Amino acid sequence: MEIRIKNIRIGGETSPKIMGVLNISPESFFSDSFTPCDQVVTRVEEMIREGADIIDLGARSTALNAPPLTVADERERVLTAMKELDGYGAVLSLDTMHPEVLDAALHYDLAAINDINGLGNPEYAKLAADSGLPVIAMAAHRLPGDPLDLAGTHAALQEILDRAGKYGICNLILDPGIGKWVSDRPLAADWDLCRQFSGLKQYNCPLLAAVSRKTFIGDCIGKPAHERLYGTLGVLFYLLENGADIVRVHDVGASRDIVRVFEQLCR
Prior knowledge:
Blueprint (H helix, E strand, L loop, with lengths): L1 E4 L2 E4 L5 E7 L16 H11 L3 E5 L12 H15 L6 E4 L3 H7 L6 E4 L6 H10 L3 E4 L11 H18 L4 E4 L11 H9 L12 E2 L5 H7 L7 H13 L4 E4 L2 H14 L2
Parallel strand pairs: 3-4, 3-10, 4-5, 5-6, 6-7, 7-8, 9-10
Antiparallel strand pairs: 1-2
Helix pairs in contact: 2-3, 3-4, 8-9
C-alpha cells in the first residue's frame, strides 16, 4: 500500500524515506539532539540539507523515568516551534499523544500526525480523522509501547487497524513500537521484533522503524546514547532489508548514506 504525506510517496514500491527528529524536549534521553525553540529553523534547514524527507516535531520525552511535563507546557513548546516554522515549507509531522496539543497544532501547516498511543484516545482519534492527515500509529493496547512480546505487538497493531477503521482513517502508517516504553518489557522483545519485522507487512500498511540510539542497542554494545550511532545504523540496514518504509532518526546524514547504500545493493 502506498500513501502520501504531502507530495512524498511512502510504501509500495517507493524508496525508503528519512524522518528527522526535531527534538524540542530538554528532558530527552539523547540530550545531544535537543534543539531550543529559537533554533528550530536552523536545525530543520540542516536536516533537509542532510537528506530528511519529513521532520517529526516532538516536545515531550517518553523515556522511562523522564521528568513529568504538563500538557499545557507541551502545547506551549509545540506552538512556539510551529510559529517559528510557519511558512517555511518543511514537511512536518507532530509527535504527540494529547488531543489538546494536536488541536492547537492543526492551525498550522501540519502534514502528518504521529500518535504513540495508537489512536487509543477517542478524542484524539476523532481529531486525527477530521483533519484528513496521514496518521502514524504506534503499537499500544492501553499505554504507548505496552505490548510485551511479538504476539502482543501483532495484537496491538490489529487493534489500531480496528480503531482506524472505526474513525475512517485510511492513510495509516504503522509503527511497531520498538523500544523499552514500559518497565516490564524485556529487551529481548525488541530484538525479536526486529528479526520478525518483515512479518508486519501482512497488515498492508507502510511501516515506520524508530530504533535510533535506543536502549536495546545500548545494552548490546555496552554504550550510552551518544555512542550508539554505529549500532543504530547496523539495525537500520537490517530493517530496511525487511520492509521499513520510513526510518525515524536523530542522525539524518549517516542514515541517508545507509539508505543510499541499501538502494544500490537492492536494485
